[in-house]
Amino acid sequence: MTEISVDVAIVGAGPAGSTLAALLAHRGYSVALIDRDTFPRDKLCGEFLSYDAMPIIDALGLRDELDAHVAPEISHCRIVGRHRNYEFDFPHPARGVSRMLLDDALFRRAVAAGAQAITGTASEVTRDSVTFDGGAVRARVVAGAWGRWGRFDQQLGRAFVRDRSHRNFGFKRHYRKAGGTSDGTIELYSFKRGYLGVNDVEGGITNICGLVHAGRLQGLKGRWDAFIETIRAEERPLDDLYARHTPAQEGFLSSEPVIFRSRSAVEEGIFMIGDASGVIDPLTGNGMAMALQSALVAAPFIAATLENGDRQHSEDAYRTRHAQLFGQRIGWSRRVAFLLSRPALLDNALRLHVPSAGPFFLRKTRADREVIARMVDAELEKQSVP
Ligand SMILES: Cc1cc2nc3c(=O)[nH]c(=O)nc-3n(C[C@H](O)[C@H](O)[C@H](O)COP(=O)(O)OP(=O)(O)OC[C@H]3O[C@@H](n4cnc5c(N)ncnc54)[C@H](O)[C@@H]3O)c2cc1C
Questions:
Q1: What is the distance between the alpha carbons of residues 379 and 24, in angstroms, rounded to a whole number?
Q2: Which residue's alpha carbon is nearest to atom 37 within ligand 1?
Q3: What distances in angstroms separate CA 48 from CA 18, 61, 71, 179, 324, one per listed residue?
Q4: pLDDT digit string (tens) for 200-249?
Q5: Is the CB of 17 under 6 A from ligand 1?
Q6: Domains recognised in the chain with CATH numbers
């Protein structure tokens, strides 16, 4: 049985947890990073890493690894409607990168920075302890980075867990496309009560990942191939899309429900980061960027708690800062998702062809890269461990 005491225990080593672990370990704190998975591992995701994550990726020294694996740059977006498309450029390149590669790279970075990795499923979390199947960790601060849905959300009595009417499910599969090479574009497709994102990742692979309201899955019992056949029959652009792609992965990957109800950034003294602190609609391709950014935002407030012991002040300040940075982005993501999951409405909107709509959407749903770069600089100044 493992029994240890650390400054900070982090539950979940996805993009949020591993980033926070690396930042706090670099500040010189002892950190335990607990995950039920071993890395590398696959995960449901569109695998589009937004450009506003890149200042943090650079600060963690991971750009070279993305380059070495030739994770493609994505500079262009195409929204594919029934009768017309809408296209716009990104102000900076994003990256197509698999979760196998990205999560593993972030996890290794955290361990290299000095975080103690623990493989185990956490079963109980309080503000100063984590119990998992192989033991327990006592900590001066606990951070929740367990993603959008976990047993602790029930234990903590978080309201969104009870929401049964707004549940969505994601599905993803890797493919090889006819004709092959990456053209640096992400495509978004609409179908009734859902949508798909399509972009290339490293290794000549194209990821097709979607989100659909639970109401459309009744009776399918997890048979995603049957659902794909249904939406292909409904929407011609989707039929064409799937006709151009051959599966490169055994089956579909899905996961726990996706619920967009708001959630608190601090819950019973536990600092929440990443999806555990708020879920942006996947259509933005901004969840991972937000995960990294929330770790960057949380690090100084956790450090302040450790240094001066004024928990209440740090918790309130983190909550406020979190809402300032992410609240509006989450709200806008839902408005655009409403449009994207109604093909006829989307087609009418595309008919208007407003060239400024794409840049407006980008501004509303992601961080200003310069703001993130300044936060990164401030964090790097605090880091005592090389
Ligand atoms: C359909 C869909 C498509 C998406 N596409 C994109 C996209 O293209 N781009 C993008 O940026 N974002 C996308 N997202 C969002 C993105 O996946 C999340 O925002 C991101 O993974 C959040 O990171 P995280 O670190 O907070 O949580 P996660 O990545 O969910 O990591 C949580 C970690 O906690 C661990 N964990 C959970 N419970 C326990 C426990 N009890 N004990 C121990 N460990 C535990 C898990 O094993 C996991 O490793 C998409 C989401 C969906 C649903």
A1: 10
A2: 146
A3: 18, 19, 10, 21, 24
A4: 999 999 999 999 999 999 888 889 999 999 999 999 999 999 999 999 99
A5: yes
A6: 2-164+258-382 (3.50.50.60)
